[in-house]
Amino acid sequence: MQLIAIEGKAPPPGLDFSTEEVQAMQRAVIRLFDHWKITDAQAATLLGDIAVRTYQRWKQGEYGRWNVDLAARLSNLMGIHKALRLLYTEAERGYRWIKAPNQAFGDRSALEVMLGGQLTDLMRVRRYLDSNRGAW
């Protein structure tokens, strides 16, 4: 299912993903969440408050329908992962960073910020990491 125009409007720039691309991001996010050692409930929140059972079906390879919000969340999570891999040559340090207190977030961890549940919470963490890695 590709994003379709609503009321004659095209999807937001950069969010015109194919079903194959979204499913690839879903598979990658499942592995990422495993590295981050987060619960299925936390994963469901990060993915836009989807049902925990829906996330569990993803882990079994049943991806189902998706929308612009989910595609944007997956894209931001992939951006966070990429930025951490660029900032930390040792992958495990990046995986641990996600749960470490951070002054930039008022001594909360990036995970705590993202668990606010809004797309903008994911975007905030991504922007922070992107600004720290510079214009690579």
From TrEMBL:
Residues 83-133 form the Antitoxin Xre/MbcA/ParS-like toxin-binding domain. InterPro entries: Xre-like_HTH, Xre/MbcA/ParS-like_toxin-bd. Residues 26-79 form the Antitoxin Xre-like helix-turn-helix domain. GO terms for molecular function: DNA binding. It holds the Pfam family Xre-like-HTH. This is Uncharacterized protein. It comes from Edaphosphingomonas laterariae. The lineage of its organism: Bacteria, Pseudomonadati, Pseudomonadota, Alphaproteobacteria, Sphingomonadales.
